[in-house]
Structures
1.
Amino acid sequence: MASIGFNRIAIASVAIAALSASCMSKESLAPAQATRAPQLALSATSDTAAYPGIVSDFENMARVDGPAVVAVNASPLDTASGLKQLWPPPGVGNDPFLRFFREFSPAPGDDRGTLARQHASGFIISPDGDILTDAGDIAGASGITVSLADGRTYPAKVIGSDPASGVALLQISAKGLPVARIGSPTALKAGEWVASMGSPYGLGNSIVRGIVSNTSRLLPDQSYAPLIQTDLTENAGDGGGPLLNLKGEVVGIETPLPDDGRAYQGLAFAIPIDEAMKVERQLKLHGKATHGRIGVAVQDLTDPLARSFGLTRPNGALVTSVDSGGPAAKAGMRAGDVIVGINGSAVSDSTHLPAAVADLSPGATVDLGYWRNGAVRHAAVVLSSMGSHDLPVDTKNRASSGAYGLGVRNLTGDEERAAGVQGGVRVEQSSGPAALAGIEPGDIILRINSTPVTSTAQFFRKIVRSAHDVALLVDRNGTRMFVTMEVG
């Protein structure tokens, strides 16, 4: 952006100089034009080369690629017929509160509220009627219709739907349909222009443009695949529509997120099309998709965390919890292990590990390389299948350390059972280094580096003996994450 500002200043200077020169003699005007004009032309050329996306023709994109975009209408299960009209009583039609009560007691057959038709979007991927859309928007539908850009409407059959990825495959009985061009999201970069087409509120095709904010955003409980984050405007009915690059190629499927009014306001996300097409192939062949699972929760490593585990670089996926009885647990893995490889391929961070595992078949055996106690080890893990998925306190067990800002106590047996943990200490006070690390009262500290915490005394012995920062595995309301606390 600094170069843009500089060029604009240069252009303004040229304009001022030209204006001043016009008040001078003709003899002085010609040299000024001769010397400054090439500089102006050079600035304009360099700007165009540096920012080619700004001149993209979105009108042409809408004309060429719009015909392959469809509106998807999903009818809910027929529960309206079972509703009983509460007001007005039969035969009373002139009550002054009639309009008010109708908002809360729809008459039988009234198609509003939770019974209303669900609108979504989609795009055609084969001339004979295969259509990709968002799985969540058609879940539980009793019937689906698809409206083409030219106005034709067809009933649609659900070939398969995969809640884990958010991808659904529909089919209509039609031939010679326009087909969306499939691109690759791997070339996308943050800041690049993109466009989205869809049918917001079922009103028909529209196009919006924006930029890529992040190319690999992993959201908890949303999708195993890293999502493409954009600043596009997200409206009801856009889910399932294509995200297009500057060539008009599909690089993602718009996916709506839960509307909780908090976390994701102003953000839009898309499932990468390469991951979606892997799922589409399974749905086409089998009517369903299966995904491998190792049964761990992971987080990214930071530099301080990496040093705490004896790593020179923050590469790998740090295991924060292992499902009891799951594949990883059976292979001997535990919280504090750092997964650094899968089947010989390096794992650089936690973002792409879930997708790498999910792309494998349940029952397959994978080789997981992981770092523990200063060495790389290997485990043969047999993948399972991914699913759709104030107490008494004993004061003598308290301990605190003003040096670290931590006050902790041992857990009671009831607390362990309620939290689903074995061992650990509960935080009662957090200040200084502990607070800076993000530790809060009520947290349960389960591990220090790779060692399980068994008591307050053992916990502080480990901290005192540490010559550098320590990694603490913290459980907060069932969610586990490693944090780094300074002890040196």
Note: The chain has three domains: 56-76+117-289, 292-385, 395-485.
2.
Amino acid sequence: MNPQNPQYPQNPQYQQNPQYQQNPQYPQGPQYPQQPGYPPQQGYPQQPGHAAVAQPPLAAPTTLTITLISAIVIAVANLVNGVVYLMAGEDLLIEQAKALGVSEELAELALASADTSIVTTRGLMFIINGLVIGLLVVALRSAKTWARVVLTLFSLGAILGALIALADGLSPLIMILGLAAGLGGLVALITVWLPPTNRYAAWRKQSGS
């Protein structure tokens, strides 16, 4: 019987490596306190809807100012012309006849036999035109549409009256006043319907003022 083979001594077990120690945690830096007066930001609340933004008042345009000045010129010129026609129309006709070489007696006889109502009619025409346009000035300040339409019609009448006054040629004053009223009517016809005036009229109507 064979002797047992000698058992080799077992290799000693390697000892487990010691676990590495965890690195020490670094101390956290000091936390800075929040600055006083500044609360933490919060989310902006949603707006339920856009509120109606009030439009600033719109200043009267230059075109409307020119229209008002023109209307005042027409009113004053025609009122004065109407009074001159009514008060001194017949005398001016006699003076005009005398300037043509007709004697004063013959001129008076011709005037007595002629229909002098045309002088009165023209005087009343000038006065009515001046009064209507003068009363329109208040409504024109708001650029009311109806007032602008009436001004347009009576501005045409002012231009016609200017032509009549120039054609009559009774006196330099009548012709100057007629020319002033005619030019005022022509300017008013243009400026009363220009885009700035129309925009201002639309704004006044929309704002209800």
Note: The CA atoms of residues 110 and 128 lie 29 Å apart.
3.
Amino acid sequence: MGRYDRRGSRDRDRDRRRSRSRSRDRRRRSRSRSRSRDRYRDRDFGRGGGGRGGRGGQPGSNLRKPRWDTSRLEPFKKDFYVPHPDTSSRPQHEVEEYRKAKEITLKGRNVPNPILSFEESNFPDYVLREVRRAGFKDPTPIQAQGWPIALSGRDMVGIAMTGSGKTLSYTLPAIVHINNQPRLQRGDGPIALILAPTRELAQQIQQVADDFGRSSQIRNTCIFGGAPKAPQARDLERGVEIVIATPGRLIDFLESGRTNLRRCTYLVLDEADRMLDMGFEPQIRKIIDQIRPDRQTLMWSATWPKEVRNLAEEFLRDYTQLNVGSLQLSANHNILQIVDVCQEYEKESKLSTLLKEIMAEKENKSIVFIETKRRVDEITRKMKRDGSGKSPILVATDVAARGLEALARPVTMPINGIVAERCASLSGGIMGLGQGLGQGLAKYGVGMAQLLEQ
């Protein structure tokens, strides 16, 4: 009897151990599912996200603000501007006439004269070589006045419509700035940091940095959400002089210690108004806290709302404000815009008819802007099914409207099939066509009901 009692006791002990083991397995699976949900929730789908921070979910909450003592910081040079004799000797009335003709207005002290040609910029040969290779003839107004300010080491705010050439306005001075700093050592972060609101814009900026930094062998990387972290982390660990980043993903790398901003002396906030609209102000503040206070800061924006003004007043020192054109978002006057008021169900047939008219001229090229990626795919499939495949037509969402100046060949007819929430959005979607794409014609298909509601 005793033997059977002992055997029953052993069976009961074994059953209890198995029960405890199954309970542990269930808890592990539950924790794993919870972590997976958190990872999915925290993913940044290309809009600069990530950077949720600690338990409170505040962006950058794990980042500690350094106690900067400027007296102990390694000095660095940021004034490289040597005026060309033609620029410095130009009569003041000619300078004012140029500024008036180009709608340039300025606020700030001791603003240098604008340069009227690339030769007047006094950029080093390795920069001018790439400019000539790109085939540019003359600087745009924002470049003509912005380069002397940026090369002087001054903080500045540049306000101009999309497509005005802003990217080169800060990229070329960044290249000069970097080449006048000590080389990066192991463990150093970037010398120049460019913040952008979206992956698409960040990638466009990187393309410009690639093209114009080629001769000087300046390394860069583009970090943004919605893409694997490992390749971006490897670039940061190897060391790059320029980091182009969306705010959330950069916060992630700063919190994990994959990079730092101790060497950063040149900061650019591109499309600052859009970054604030998208809710990135907390991330921007956390990032700027990690950069030495005597840095050079350049802020670029298409508009000048109160929120952007407040940010400039807080983080820029003795800055120059450069404005080209209106302070409000407006249409590009190089483009004739036609609005075709129609019902929603008419849009596809009108689009088909319009494209046939446009493509009757062999030299014409067109871009069609559509609301969503799903609709882009649908329209593309219909075009491929019904068309011959010979006409150069690009169908895209409105993110492609930014940075179109990078296209080499002119687009004569962009078509905006997007119903805008605001009138400003209609004109803003194609403003990038004004620079590099020449004069053109824009056409919109807008539902009658939505138009009457505005």
Note: The radius of gyration is 27 Å.
4.
Amino acid sequence: MSDLFEGCKSPFRIWSVLDIPSFIYEGNTIPFPPQHRIVFAYMASLANRYGDVRVSYFSVCKRTGMDEIEEVAAIFKWLEAFRLIKRKVTLFDEDKGKKETTRYEVNYPDNQFPYETLPPSMER
């Protein structure tokens, strides 16, 4: 994972994403599991470099070190549910036949997490 975030434009604050234990979404506290943070941080780093992101579950597994494609698919659904990523719909058939990749827009405006976050707890 050492080169996972190489090439990001500064000031990309990846560690701030990895330090978010939970966030406030529509008045509710939502726990942000570590694996979800890693996938979101990876997606945000790609968006920082390239704008819209085109990835497959397999490529995210490979780059983040996760074992199960199904787990990554579930994480993507979770991130979509909380509007952290959004599938990009195009009016053209440029993606026709490319079922293995999907284009996403990442909700990480100005390198800041889009929701109010709660600080990490020091309790064990």
Note: Residues 9 and 49 are 6 Å apart (CA to CA).
